[in-house]
Amino acid sequence: MMYIPITVDHIARVEGKGGIEIVMGDEGVKEVKLNIIEGPRFFEAITIGKKLEEALAVYPRICSFCSAAHKLTAVEAAEKAVGFTPREEIQDLRDLLYIGDMIESHALHLYLLVLPDYLGYSNPLSMLDKYKKEIEYAMALKNIGAKIMDYLASRPIHQENAIMGGFGKLPTKAQFEELKRELKEALPMAEYTVELFSKLEQYKEVEDKEMIHMAVKPRNGVYGIFGDYIKVSDGFEFPVEDYQKHIVERVVEHSFAKHSFYKDKPFMVGAISRIVNNADLLYGRAKELYAQYKDLLRYDNCFANNFAQALELVYFIERAIDIIDDTLAKWPIRPRDEVEIRDGRGVSITEAPRGLVAYTIEVKDGRVAYADIITPTAMNLAIMERHVRMMAEKHYQDDPERLKYLTEMTVRAYDPCISCSVHVVKL
Fold this sequence. Notes:
Binding site for Fe cation: 66, 420
Pfam families: NiFeSe_Hases (PF00374)
CATH topology: Cytochrome-c3 Hydrogenase, chain B
Cofactor: Fe cation; Ni(2+)
Order of helices and strands: EEEHHHHHEEHEEEHEEHHHEEEHHH
Mean pLDDT: 89
Shape: globular
Binding site for Mg(2+): 44, 373, 423
Binding site for Ni(2+): 63, 66, 417
Number of helices: 13
Low-confidence stretches: 9-14, 421-427
CATH architecture: Orthogonal Bundle
Largest sheet: 3 strands, antiparallel
Number of strands: 13
């Protein structure tokens, strides 16, 4: 039997460096590997022994795309470790900060990383002549997300103003009103995004009837980001403190990032997983659009993740406006409370733009004694590899360049952050 390798050395338009290797024989696809070749960075290990506040400044450096997600998840884990619970208004403002990350990340992914695939362009800059409005919408949505993070956390990436107990300082009332005005202006752009992606090809080659979706069970019955339990689409729920019992990481020889399994099976996290598990918690215009386009939000197709992100853009903009209204109604707000550092262990799992991010932090004598982090991409890698194989099996007889194109599209549907994933290899 003759084996023919097809290799994608670098998956374009994703954060980080990874590749795809497909080996075909006379009877079809023999082997598919997602080669995560970016080296490990040992973020857990380098924070051991650091003062807790110093470690909390290190964790957001895992990723610039999701730095707010890493910061806020680490802060919540640290607060749980020392036995501190933030006030409701502080938690709401953390939601708002996190939503800024969601809006920016979703806009960049949908318009600049994914849309070129659907429209037949190699990069977003080449779209400018014909799709100038779409690029302008992308940047406007990205900018309002970044402004939320800038105002609340001192800068759009690697945020330092979000601290244990609250915030170093809060935006002014005028700045909150400015954000609200710009969010209202952005809402029609988000609705346009839903309409645009509803018309694009759905790529039904990847139909996985065994798909398992995992997402946070949001607190207070509002579709969102923070929660104390994890919901699984098979009906099971477990407290976030038990994630290491149910999310099992395994080393694979072709990847610097581990693969994650639930009940020995791959599973998916991300926007479509949040919709599958929590669609009943949507409200406002997003709820209406969900009802209108429910058939496109298929639980068995990873490409539905793109459309789910578009729907979330609408939801999170509306949610941000509501949080600002609530904040202004309570104005003025004390930015932080004192936190007493003591020994303990804390666990937090939140919804990053790409899905669940899990943190465990143990504190002893004011320093980090243990840290464990599982990122969304590390959770998705096993199911992502399976779906790349399914796409390859459908198209292995196609022109090799088209096969490469379709398998790369499959990876991009997950909005992976490869750099995020590789830190989990231990020293």
